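Incident log, structure service

09:12 report received: a user says their structure output differs between two submissions of the same chain.
09:20 pulled the input from the user's history:
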Amino acid sequence: MTALRTLLSMAFVGLAGATAVQAADLPSRGDPYAPGAAYAPITNWTGFYLGAHLGGGWGESGPVDTSGLVGGFQGGYNFQVEKFVFGGEADFSFANISNESFTEEAKHDWLGSIRGRAGYSFGNLMAYGTLGFAFADASYRSLFGVTSDTVNGWVFGVGAEMMVMPKVTIRAEYLRYELGSSLYPSNVGLVSIDSSVNVIRAGASYKF
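09:34 re-ran on a clean worker, output below:
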């Protein structure tokens, strides 16, 4: 029994000594130089924004392949729920998506869209998908005449956006415009053809 008491006493003394050493290593609550918790800035995507973009596109107008440059403006609103970001965006692009030859030309001079966006925030980086309504012009010239229409359709795409400053973001995105049918002058008269455009563009926005 005496040996057991001696062992318990030694164990208690050792535990008390270890606890005292650990306590001595902890910073005092009043110590102004004690290290604090790491600061993690909170990125907030909620708000209105306006910006500009520039890129290139390629597509098809019936049997004709088209390509060229695009550039324009975008604006919208985001709201954030925890790490999920939802919003709406409208954009307009001046374009020179065309294929011109001596005998025919197919051309889009502008593209526009109204889309919803849904994304996931990884802090200052957001990955998103987008889907909405698209509209554009479609003009054609051939040996058999000239036509010009405004076409409607839909657009979808994916992108990534980075908040490089509290109110400034940059982005890269891919959009696929599926445009409606338009009239093409042919040797049998006006025929209906479909057109589509793929766009890869980069942009920047200012968040209000």
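09:41 both user submissions now match this output. Likely a transient worker issue. Closing.
09:42 reviewer note: The chain is about 10% helix and 70% strand. The beta strands are 47-61, 64-81, 84-100, 105-121, 125-142, 145-165, 168-186, 189-207.
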